[in-house]
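S.,

As promised, the glutamine run. Input:
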Amino acid sequence: MVHVAEPTEDENRGGVVVAVKDNICTASMPTTCSSAMLADFVSPYEATCVRLLREQGAHIIGKTNCDEFGMGSLNVHSTHGPVVNPYKLGSEHRQTGVEPRSAGGSSGGSAAAVRAGMCDVALGTDTGGSVRLPASYCGVVGFKPSYGLISRRGVVSYADSLDCVGILAKNISEVERTFDIMNCHDHGDPTSLPMRTRGSASAFCDRRMRTMSPHSDLPTPAHGLRIGIPQEYFPSELSQSVVSPVRRVLQALAEQGAEIVPVSLPSTAYALSAYYVIASAEASSNLARYDGVQYGLRVIPPPGSDITKTSRVYAHTRTKGFGSEVKKRILLGTYALTADAFDNYFLQAQRVRQLIKHDFDRVFTVPNALTWTGETADTADKVDVLIHPSAIRTAPPLQRAGGASGSADALDAYVQDVLTVPASLAGLPALSVPAGEGDDGWPVGVSIVGQWGCEKMLWYVGKMVEQTMC
Ligand code: GLN
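Predicted complex:
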């Protein structure tokens, strides 16, 4: 926790205790995005998602550490220092001499706060996996909703076409309850979808779920459920220690009547590259607002230099205010948007994004409410959800996690996102649920991905996975 709320009178009223990632604006506490650029920044207004929770009696206890502006996979790029994974520090696992491991990122502080029992629920943001990855590493539930359902008003932008507010908690019921409070249209966010679109997606999902056992008297709970296993989600980088827990989950679901179907999403191989081009391009544009003039850090050039030149203020402010990872993304993104590189990088990445969306739409039984043309497709070979490992490995040791730029360890940080970015590019809901431990005794998560707006299906399958762990 990087800021703790002042005790208030309603503290003992028994509302749900919530921690908030430090890139989500709160009016009563600073919002630093773990950046020197915003070290003293207090927002004049509160994010819609925080307000909605508070209005329902939630008690906001503080702000959590994260990678600077949400950029990172291991929560090591932060002015507040890295987040240590509390999994083996908590009471049930207390061990001495355990090598500290990463809590994952960028919402590492939120996952760690839930794992350590500091709060019931924590809000994070997920642009390419920043809620699901730390959830998997810390052994908690992490949920990235369908794009456009939870308002991003008051959430500091990283890459607007991908950013989602996500939820971390110890169990799915808590995540679902929190989501229901925040799942509404907000006029203050132009990307917040109208109730009508949400309604059509819900109707598609309900129609499909009515054909399944929760609404019938069939003997097995998962009867009628078709689970797709995307073959491209078992890349060479995947650690064997992650595979066994995932296999156990699938076996348990099959025993309960689910049909396990291998599927192919052929564009997956290009997702990571496309993601980093798009996310960096959007980030370079978003971060242009930190110029030392309007808010945040301002560095006045040293005496003797020509301070009348505004560009010098920009340069000094941005040199001092941004960390190295953020600077790297600005350079990469600015390059991708230059006239020379635009067609080869940015446009190609957008094409890959379309292919990825088509891959998903092709395999799901439920149509995509955002693009549905009125045709009813044959659902015979299709699946209701996809299941795959949330991460390619368990939490890496912190010592390796801070690898110097260009080193194998630094590259490894980008590869951590390989399984989470496709759902982000397609704007689909994804839920990471703890699936036990790997051979090294650290948590493994499985991800359940569904059609846009079909969160109900994720709760249903996720709760079955949860039960298999009891
Ligand atoms: N690790 C990814 C990145 O650095 C995802 C971050 C996120 O989801 N905020 O871009």
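The mean pLDDT is 93. The CA atoms of residues 155 and 433 lie 25 Å apart.

- D.
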